[in-house]
Amino acid sequence: MHLSMWALIKGQFDKQPPVVKTDLTGKTVVTVGTNTGLGFEAAKHFARMNPGRLILACRSQSRGQAAVDTEGGYGRGYTHVELWLIELGDFESVKHFADRFERDGGRLDILVENTAVSMQKYEATKDGWETSLQVNCLSTPLVAFLLLPSMIRTAQEHATIPRLVVVASETHYWVTISRKIYEKGNILATLGNAKYCTTKAMRMHYPLTKLLNVFFVRALNSCLGASLLIVDAVNPGFCVSKLRRNISGPVAWLANFMEWIMAFTTEEGGHRLVHGAVGILEDADTLLTKMAWTRGGYLNQCRVEEPSNFVVSAEGHRVQDQIWVSLLTEISLNVLTSVQDELIEV
């Protein structure tokens, strides 16, 4: 599928469906990247569905607590919200978060991975990676890998269907990975080093990370085999958010102008995250059909759509397999020892 700028703009003016609602009593929801923006709005909607636990995974204690305490936010009689800290720019922080969840021993029904950053220039994390690549494309999968055993146990012990939602973007339609990059072997190592991340390359680095998110969702779904876990990539659309807070100059002016004339509200974007987590399963008679339809899918405007032509091409499949192997190599950190019984080879 090809997405033109006109199609994107037209889609921004489509009427948005109401937020999906269901009963989450007794279930556990974890939202990563929740102290503001789309994650905050999605978490508020989850709270109104009365989950047994709502865990907000945030980078900042102060901002996360402010989100919890926001008047009209998680209040309204809901008292099961918990603030947990995680820094996706630090692999050790991700492992600490997962270790805490493993010690907690609870179920995990919904995991929404909303955290993403967009950088204008190269900045390295303490782990030596370009920041947006580590946050968006390494730590996001790492969280999923480390929490996957809990989700699978939940499916087996509670006869339910856990959901993993990875926030993607329609901007993935506008980028590809060139042959000269993937022929070097380790795609992630190439994309995450200072030599590659020139000023020119960084202009399209965020869409590139979203392309990698789509590849990750498709590859993980392929490896889950007969597991009842549903994983999908959700496009929230062009929304009012703080994602562009690191942008400056004329690009920032243009982004602000476009936000003013056609952006979805932050709450509308949050609706789409909620739909990816609880939607489509209303009709139990066709549950298995709908599961197959959504698993590994790219969701836009609350429906499954075909991702970019590059993603579905033969070349895209080869790149996806290579990225998967590269991902497991770079962030394995022994995580496969805990999930190897659930994964099959791509």
Describe the structure concisely.
This is NAD(P)-binding protein. The protein is an alpha/beta fold.
Q: What report would you give on this structure?
A:
The protein is of the alpha/beta class and 346 residues long. It has a single domain (5-330), classed as NAD(P)-binding Rossmann-like Domain (Rossmann fold, 3-Layer(aba) Sandwich), CATH 3.40.50. It contains 15 helices and eight strands. The protein has helices at 5-12, 37-47, 61-69, 91-104, 131-158, 179-182, 187-191, 199-202, 205-223, 250-262, 266-278, 287-294, 309-312, 314-331, 336-339; strands at 28-32, 53-58, 81-85, 110-113, 163-167, 230-235, 298-300, 303-305. Strands 3-2-1-4-5-6-7-8 form an eight-stranded mixed β-sheet, with helices on both faces. The radius of gyration is 19 Å and the shape is globular.
